[in-house]
Specification:
Low-confidence stretches: 120-125
Largest sheet: 4 strands, mixed
Radius of gyration: 22 Å
Helix content: 25-40%
Function: Cell wall formation. Adds enolpyruvyl to UDP-N-acetylglucosamine.
Distance between the termini: 7 Å
Protein name: UDP-N-acetylglucosamine 1-carboxyvinyltransferase
Strand content: 15-25%
CATH architecture of the largest domain: Alpha-beta prism
Mean pLDDT: 94
Number of domains: 2
Number of helices: 14
CATH superfamily of the largest domain: Enolpyruvate transferase domain
InterPro entries: Enolpyruvate_Tfrase_dom, Enolpyruvate_Tfrase_sf, MurA_subfamily, RNA3'P_cycl/enolpyr_Trfase_a/b, UDP_GlcNAc_COvinyl_MurA
CATH topology of the largest domain: UDP-n-acetylglucosamine1-carboxyvinyl-transferase, Chain
Catalytic activity: phosphoenolpyruvate + UDP-N-acetyl-alpha-D-glucosamine = UDP-N-acetyl-3-O-(1-carboxyvinyl)-alpha-D-glucosamine + phosphate
Structural class: alpha+beta
Keywords: Cell cycle, Cell division, Cell shape, Cell wall biogenesis/degradation, Cytoplasm, Peptidoglycan synthesis, Transferase
C-alpha cells in the first residue's frame, strides 16, 4: 500500500495541464469493440483504471498499438469471445467499475456480453438495473449466476425499442446507446444522460457511421445501422481534475493557471466555485486563479439564507466535485450545506477533516454543514487513509493547505483517477513525497 508524505502550508505557483477525462475514456475504449476497423484515440489518461481497461481489451483479442504519448490505435478484428468465460476475465472485470460498458458493444456486435459484478469505489450502491433493462427492451435475454456474481445477456438479433430510463445513468445510457447503434430499427431513449462525455461518445459513434439524433439532450433517437467503421477521436480534458485544481489553488492561496480546459464544456462548474467566493478568470481556453491572499467568502442566497450546493445529473453539478467543494468551504468565510444526493457513503471521509480541525456537522449520510475558518486557524496535519478517488484527492488538498506534515495511505485509490499527481504537483511547488 503506497503512501504520500505531504508538507503543507506552502503556496504553489505555475501552470498545470489537466489529463484526459477518465470517465470519457472508459466509455470510448469500450466502443472500439463495435468495429473491426482501426480506431485511433488521443489524449488517453495514463491512470490505473484506464490502463486496466486497455489490458482487458488486449486480453479479449483487441490489437493495441501505442502511437506516442497518450495516443493509441485499437483494432478489434479478432476478438476472442472464449475469454469472456475465463477466470482471468472474471478477476479482471471485478476490479474495474467501467468494465460494465463492455457488455453493450459485445452484445451489439457478437450477440452476447458477459461481465462479473464490477468493483470500483466503495461510495454506496450503484445499480446495474438500468443497463440490463435497456438490453432486455432491445430483445436480449438476461441471466445471472448468483454463486459467481456473473451477469450475461444474449440475443440472436437486437431490435430498436422505446424506453424511458428509470434514472439518467451516464454509464447506463452509454451502454444502451452502444447496443442500439447496431440494432435493427429505431431506438428512442428518454431521460438519457447528456453529460459532455456521453456527447463525446455519441459524436464518435456518428463519425463511425452511427445515426444518432438529439445529442446533448435527454431524448436520443438512434436508427440502427448494419456496420460501423473506424475513426479518430480526442478525449476532453478531465473536468473533475480541473475542479480539483481550482479548489487546490484557493485552499493554498496559490496563483495557478489551468491550461487547455475546454471551458465551454465545463457547464456550471466555474459558477459553482465562484459561489464560494473563488476568483476564476477565463483566458482563452485557460483558467487563471489568482492567489487568494485575503481568503474567499461564500455567497448566501438573495434572501440571506445559507447556500446549499448539491449534485444533480448534467447540466447540474457533478457529484464527483462535491468533496472538493466541501474541503474548500472549510477555509471560506461563511457557511454552506453540502447535499450529496446520489451516493450515501461519499461524505464519510469528513471525519478525517474534523480530525484536522475543520468545523463540519455530518447531518446524515447525504448532508454536511460546513462552517468556514476564514484561514483564522489552519487545518492540522494528520495521518489518514484514502477511501476512494474523490475523497482521496480532497484529503490531499486539505493536507497541502494544513500546517505540518501529513501522511496519506492507500494512495492507489488516488492513482486510479489522477495521473502522476505527485510529480505534477511538485512542478508547481508542492512538497509531496511518494513512498511505495
Amino acid at each position: 500500500m503506497g503512501t504520500f508524505i505531504i508538507e503543507g502550508g506552502h503556496q504553489l505557483k505555475g501552470d498545470i495541464q489537466p489529463q484526459g477525462a477518465k470517465n470519457e475514456a472508459l466509455q470510448i475504449l469500450c466502443a472500439v469493440l463495435l468495429t473491426a476497423e482501426p480506431v485511433v484515440i488521443n489524449n488517453v489518461p495514463d491512470i490505473i483504471d484506464v490502463n486496466k481497461l486497455i489490458a482487458l481489451l488486449n486480453n479479449l483479442g483487441v490489437r493495441v498499438t501505442k502511437n506516442g504519448t497518450a495516443s493509441y490505435t485499437f483494432q478489434a478484428d479478432e476478438v476472442n469471445l472464449d475469454f469472456l468465460q475465463s477466470e482471468d476475465y472474471k478477476i479482471q472485470g471485478r476490479g474495474l467499475r467501467g468494465s460494465i460498458m463492455l457488455v453493450g458493444p459485445l452484445l451489439a456486435r457478437f450477440g452476447k456480453g458477459y461481465i462479473p459484478r464490477p468493483g470500483g469505489d466503495k461510495i454506496g450502491r450503484r445499480r446495474l438495473d438500468t443497463h440490463f433493462e435497456g438490453f432486455i427492451k432491445l430483445g436480449a435475454t438476461f441471466r445471472y449466476n448468483k454463486e459467481e456474481y456473473f451477469y450475461g445477456v444474449e440475443a440472436d438479433k437486437l431490435t430498436g425499442a422505446q424506453m424511458l430510463l428509470d434514472e439518467a445513468s451516464v454509464t447506463g445510457t452509454a451502454n444502451i446507446v452502444m447496443a442500439a447503434v447496431l440494432a435493427s430499427g429505431t431506438t428512442t431513449i428518454y431521460n438519457a444522460a447528456c453529460e459532455p462525455y456521453l456527447q463525446q461518445l455519441c459524436k464518435m459513434l456518428v463519425r463511425m457511421g452511427a445515426k444518432i439524433e438529439g445529442i446533448g439532450s435527454n431524448l436520443l433517437t438512434i436508427t440502427g445501422v448494419k456496420k460501423l467503421g473506424g475513426t479518430t477521436h480526442s478525449i476532453l480534458p478531465d473536468m473533475i481534475e480541473i475542479g480539483s485544481w481550482i479548489g487546490l489553488a484557493a485552499m493554498t492561496k496559490s496563483e495557478i493557471t489551468i491550461k487547455n480546459v475546454a471551458y465551454d464544456e465545463l457547464g456550471i462548474i466555474p459558477a459553482t466555485f465562484r459561489k464560494l467566493g473563488i476568483t476564476i478568470e477565463r483566458k482563452g481556453d485557460d483558467i487563471y486563479i489568482p492567489a487568494h491572499t485575503d481568503g474567499y467568502e461564500i455567497q448566501n442566497y438573495i434572501d440571506g439564507s445559507i447556500l446549499t450546493i448539491s449534485d444533480a445529473p448534467w447540466p447540474g453539478f457533478t457529484p464527483d466535485l462535491l468533496s472538493i467543494v466541501l474541503v474548500v468551504a472549510t477555509q471560506a468565510r461563511g457557511s454552506v450545506l453540502i447535499h450529496q444526493k446520489m451516493f450515501e457513503s461519499r461524505l464519510f471521509f469528513v471525519d478525517k477533516l474534523i480530525d484536522m480541525g475543520a468545523k463540519i456537522i455530518l447531518c446524515d449520510p447525504h448532508r454536511a454543514s460546513v462552517i468556514g475558518h476564514d484561514f483564522e486557524s489552519n487545518l492540522k496535519a494528520t495521518t489518514m487513509t484514502s477511501p476512494d478517488i474523490r475523497a482521496g484527492i480532497s484529503l490531499l488538498i486539505a493536507a497541502l493547505s494544513a500546517k505540518g506534515t501529513s501522511t496519506i495511505h492507500n494512495i492507489e485509490q488516488i492513482d486510479r483517477g489522477y495521473q502522476n499527481i505527485d510529480t505534477r504537483l511538485q512542478r508547481i511547488g508542492a512538497k509531496i513525497q511518494r513512498l511505495s
